[in-house]
Design brief:
The protein is α+β, with helices and mostly antiparallel strands. The protein contains 5 helices and 16 strands.
Length: 248
């Protein structure tokens, strides 16, 4: 399957320098650094500021990756390389601009719509494997840390308040505002952990529900020690917290 057809694939490239040719050319050479995901030959990109309105003439194809004059098939963070782009002139590119894969996969769009900034697919070995995390969230003997009745007039607001309090005390988010989570919807186990940044910092349950239509989600701290999740039960919303360091 070509890289650009992989529904779980995304990447972000930050432009260091546009080497050439000029604005009349159909593409050209750039020096870039990969700042998210894995960029692969054949992928299609658009300027980050254009990703919601990208149309014909706004996309660029990654035709070649070179490092030390050696061709590469892919580029991952935080590495830099020279890349050959085609599909349109590069006169709009400036140092510091970010190119994002296009079109973004559905899970990427939903997380960004909830106010989160998708940073990367996180494969760190210290993160719990997904089945293990899911058992801690939805296993037969799991009990809620907090239960919020769905009959409450302000159930959504109360769930947000409890989430804000519990995740703050548990240090789910690191000082940079980052944590990891599973993608909403089907296929999340195949995609794996996604590292995100939350510039808003509060009321995540309401934001996730509004953006995805699904009240359930699963998060873990970047050190892999603390899990916080929301479960939608028959009569209640549960917040489930689990510390993997407490396991035998």
């Amino acid at each position: 399957m070509p890289a650009s057809e992989n529904p779980a694939l995304f990447s972000r490239l930050q432009v260091y320098e546009v080497v050439g040719p000029g604005e009349a050319a159909d593409g050209g050479l750039c020096i870039v650094r990969c700042v998210g995901g894995t960029a692969r030959v054949g992928q299609v990109f658009v300027l980050e500021r254009d990703q919601d309105t990208a149309g014909p003439g706004h996309t660029l194809v990654l035709d070649r990756i070179e490092k030390y004059r050696q061709p590469l098939e892919s580029l991952d963070p935080p590495h830099s390389a020279a890349v050959l782009l085609s599909g349109g002139p590069l006169d709009r590119l400036r140092a510091g601009d970010v190119l994002v894969s296009h079109p973004a996969p559905d899970w990427h769009r939903k997380l960004e719509a909830s106010g989160l900034r998708v940073l990367d697919l996180d494969r760190a070995s210290h993160l719990p494997d997904v089945p293990r995390a899911h058992r801690a969230f939805a296993g037969y003997e799991v009990k809620p840390t907090v239960s919020v009745s769905r009959d409450l007039p302000d159930a959504a607001a109360e769930l947000d308040r409890q989430w804000n309090s519990l995740t703050t005390s548990a240090h789910l988010t690191d000082p940079a505002g980052e944590f990891c989570m599973l993608a909403p919807g089907p296929g999340s186990h195949d995609i794996g952990w996604i590292r995100v940044k939350d510039p808003i910092g509060t009321n995540l349950p309401s934001r996730i529900l509004a953006a995805t239509g699904d009240p359930e989600f699963l998060t873990v701290s970047v050190d892999g020690q603390t899990m916080c999740a929301v479960s939608d039960e028959e009569y209640d919303h549960w917040i489930v917290m689990h510390h993997f360091s407490d396991e035998n």
